[in-house]
Design a protein that fits this description.
Order of helices and strands: HHHEHEHEHEHEHEE
Bound molecules: calcium ion
CATH superfamily: Vaccinia Virus protein VP39
Number of strands: 7
CATH topology: Rossmann fold
CATH class: Alpha Beta
Helix content: 25-40%
Strand content: 15-25%
Distance between the termini: 32 Å
Number of domains: 1
CATH architecture: 3-Layer(aba) Sandwich
Structural class: alpha/beta
Radius of gyration: 16 Å
Length: 213
């Protein structure tokens, strides 16, 4: 969902870095082969992720929600030479496509893939993180936050995607809509927890930058 008027959005995109060729290919293949391609990080948001990770130059990144690997490759662009990205997805059927592009990218040996339930996998990764990207099932965002907060290095950044949820966060809440309910609580938590500082950016479907003190 785009919140900006189309002409402004076009201007923003045309005055921002272009999508690298390999990500264009991955994007095209995702649209051809995979269900739900709207879950793919868009080209512009991908460049935002790339810029943020290059500013941080993280040693360890955790990504919750690999999908086809597009955002993992954007985030890998900023990894320090010793750095690693640990990326988790519950869907094993996406691994072949992920692997194809991880191989092509040159980041293969810096990417650790996990398939399964992130709530079980995260506690087993014995690392501290400089950057975390949360982009999986919205109903678990709060649970993910509580699992990662003590695994963050001081000054580390947590990015949370889809926090505006197509604008539903400002509409009347449907009591059956668990995702929106959790996102409302999550956004409040990020803004109120004393251990962190947060700005919510209206980029695409809403992207929050949270800095751990
Ligand atoms: Ca997303």
């Amino acid at each position: 969902m785009h919140f900006l008027p189309e002409n402004i959005d076009n201007y923003v995109v045309s005055h921002s870095q272009q999508e690298p060729k390999i990500l264009k290919e991955l994007s095209r293949e995702t649209w051809q082969k995979v269900l739900n391609p709207r879950m793919l990080s868009g080209a512009f948001q991908g460049r935002v992720l790339s810029m943020i990770t290059k500013l941080i130059q993280p040693k360890n990144i955790l990504e919750i929600g690999t999908y086809t690997g597009y955002s993992a490759l954007c985030l890998a662009e900023g990894l320090s030479s010793e750095g690693k990205i640990f990326t988790i997805d519950k869907n094993e059927e996406l691994e072949t496509l992920q692997n194809k592009y991880f191989e092509k990218s040159g980041y293969r040996n810096q990417i650790e893939q996990y398939v399964g339930n992130a709530l079980e996998i995260i506690p087993e990764i014995d690392e501290k993180f400089d950057l975390v990207f949360i982009d999986a099932d919205k109903s678990n965002y709060i649970n993910y936050f509580h699992l990662i907060i003590d695994k963050m290095n001081s000054g580390g950044i947590i990015l949370s995607d889809n926090v505006l949820w197509s604008g539903k966060v400002v509409e009347k809440l449907d009591p059956k809509d668990k995702d929106t309910k959790v996102l409302l609580e999550y956004n409040k938590l990020l803004n109120e927890d004393d251990r962190i500082e947060t700005v919510l950016l209206p980029i695409r479907d809403g992207l929050t930058i949270t800095r751990v003190k």
